[in-house]
Amino acid sequence: MAMQSRNSSLRNMVKAQYNDQQQHMGAAYGPYGQMTQAPQVQTMTIDDVVVRTVALVGATFVAALLTYGMVGSGDAASAGTAGLLMAVGGVVSIGIILFSIFKPITNPFIAFAYGIGQGFLLGGFSAVMEAQFPGIVVNALVATILVFFGMLALYKFRILKNSPVFTKVIVGAGFGIGGLLLVNLVASLFGVNLGLFAAPGGDPTTLQWIIAIALTLWAAFSFVLDFDMIEWSAQNGAPKKYAWAGAFGLTAGLIFLYWNLLRLLSYFQGE
């Protein structure tokens, strides 16, 4: 449910924030020629986003290793602790994702809370999947990296470009996917299986194959919006704090892509 740019209105919010900042700066320093001190406005760069993304992904990976080791150890106490961490991480990260739909994540503590929470959840679930399908975790990780850099290359060389139509399609599909996942989650809490996703090792139906492939494709193509948002923000002097919003979007996108690739690979294993 990592919403495209993971914040569909982020571009307008960055612009409004920047304009507001300029107005307040003028009021604080006075008109040009009467300034007592030159204003210092720190703006974000693409390097800022890269550094923050590496930090968030690193925190996610470390948290995942913790619960992965606990679940894989075979110790009942460790597995119980991992289950608790996974539950807390799941609740926290879902809450942050829902919050990010309405307001961009520019607070590093919230961004790290999301990454660590998802890491706890990913690590435990990945250990279960690895025990059932040896090698699937490495394959999913490699596939996630290849897809991400493949999309980055396609965007870098302008083979894939963002456009108003492309944005509407990805954003509209994203809200549809988010609603679908939320309904499925609520139904599962009441013990109702909507049949949208096959159990690991099961025999997926045609609908389940279509959903898994569609989610994976959406996760991949949504990076185009992230790259475009980050590039636009850096070129237009967005405040430096928005580098965290860009890093959060990329991290959430990578996590969502990994989840779906892991599911898709398990479908192949179940064949």
UniProtKB/TrEMBL annotation:
UniProt cross-references to InterPro entries, sorted A to Z: BaxI_1-like
Signal peptide as annotated in the record: none
Spans through the membrane: 49-71, 83-102, 109-129, 135-157, 169-197, 209-230, 242-261
UniProt keyword annotations, A-Z: Membrane, Transmembrane, Transmembrane helix
Keyword Transmembrane helix on entry: yes
Protein name, as recorded: Bax inhibitor-1/YccA family protein
Organism: Glycomyces albidus
